[in-house]
């Protein structure tokens, strides 16, 4: 079992979720139940699955939940590209969010 609050990837994904929520708050009202909701759910899914997996008793189970979190990250990336292509976010905002999404970037 891992203490998920000490995991840098969990901390970083929590910051990403907050940034995503701030960003989607500016989306058009008619997207509330569309892309806004989808993006927010994907962003929340990442730290949630990391935390859930960390609470499991085996490394195999933890790894499965990390895989789910990674899948959510890929979903989120695609949705952010869509948001930019629809004009809901700027290219600069997209770059900021993608940088935060990338676990290898120097944004710690």
How are the SSEs placed, and which strands pair?
Elements: H1 8-24, H2 35-54, H3 59-85, H4 91-101
Label this structure with key terms.
de novo design (two linked rop proteins); mainly alpha; single chain; 108 residues; 0% strand; 4 helices
Entry summary:
This protein has a single domain, classed as de novo design (two linked rop proteins). Helices cover 69% and strands 0% of the residues.
N-to-C span: 24 Å
Global geometry? elongated
Report the CATH C-level class: Mainly Alpha
Number of strands: 0
Report the CATH topology name.
Answer: de novo design (two linked rop proteins)
- Report the average pLDDT across residues: 95
What is the beta-strand fraction? under 5%
- The string of secondary-structure elements, in order, is HHHH
CATH superfamily: 23S rRNA-intervening sequence
| Sheet with most strands | none
Number of helices: 4
Percent helix range: 55-70%
The computed structural class is: mainly alpha
| Tally of individual domains | 1
Mind telling me which CATH architecture this is? Up-down Bundle
Radius of gyration: 14 Å
Low-pLDDT windows of residues: none
């Amino acid at each position: 079992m891992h203490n998920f609050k000490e995991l840098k990837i969990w901390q970083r994904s929590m910051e990403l979720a907050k940034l995503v929520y701030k960003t989607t708050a500016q989306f058009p009202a008619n997207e509330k139940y569309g892309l806004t909701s989808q993006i927010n759910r994907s962003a929340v899914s990442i730290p949630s699955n990391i935390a859930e997996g960390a609470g499991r008793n085996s490394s195999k189970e933890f790894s499965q939940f990390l895989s789910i979190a990674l899948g959510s990250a890929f979903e989120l990336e695609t949705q952010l590209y869509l948001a930019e292509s629809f004009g809901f976010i700027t290219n600069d905002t997209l770059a900021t969010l993608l940088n935060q999404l990338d676990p290898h970037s120097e944004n710690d």
